[in-house]
Design brief:
The chain is α+β, with helices and mostly antiparallel strands and about 160 residues long. The protein has helices at about 15-30, 35-50, 85-90, 145-155, and strands at about 55-60, 65-70, 75-80, 95, 115-125, 125-135. It has one domain: Beta-Lactamase. The mean pLDDT is about 95.
Length: about 160
């Protein structure tokens, strides 16, 4: 079965998210397997927005463990409170980092990463995973990304 996601690159970033989120929701609505859904979401975000790296870390056995992703090799395990992912997990809130060199304790999985946003996925008031997105550009992410990616995290949590 071939799936196609439509994304008009001439639209504003907010309009692109508005176009994309319902399509992601429809895509994961028909699939019950979480890994399959997270893999497709990673691909849609990476190629739809040309992000450097997009992936998920699932909380298992007291640490964040690498899940489906698109991009270069990544760190496999992250402790709560460590790096941007571990901090977003521990604080249960989105962490937007305009310049990773200025984030104390940043874990560099790839030296090309310049900015990052990490969104917790919360189910029953517990963080079950985080969505991590990296860019090769400084100041790549903003409040628009944060708002729509948090909406996406809520959509994902309904399938957890």
């Amino acid at each position: 079965m071939e799936e196609n996601i439509l994304l008009d690159s001439s639209l504003s970033k907010a309009e692109q998210y508005q176009q994309l989120l319902p399509q992601i929701e429809a895509l994961i609505e028909i699939e019950e397997d979480r890994i399959a859904n997270l893999a497709n979401i990673s691909a849609v975000l990476k190629y739809g927005f040309n992000f450097f790296w997009v992936g998920f870390y699932e909380f298992k056995n007291d640490e964040l463990v690498l899940g489906p992703f698109q991009g270069p090799l990544a760190c496999t395990r992250i402790k709560p409170g460590k790096g941007v992912c571990g901090t977003a997990y521990q604080e249960q809130q989105t962490i937007l980092v305009p310049d990773v060199t200025k984030f104390e304790g940043h874990i560099s999985c790839n030296s090309a990463t310049q900015s990052e946003i990490v969104i917790p996925i919360i189910k029953n008031n517990k963080v079950v995973a985080v969505l991590d997105i990296d860019s090769e550009q400084l100041n790549h992410f903003d409040e628009v990304d944060q708002m729509y990616l948090e909406n996406l995290a809520q959509i994902i949590s309904t399938k957890w």
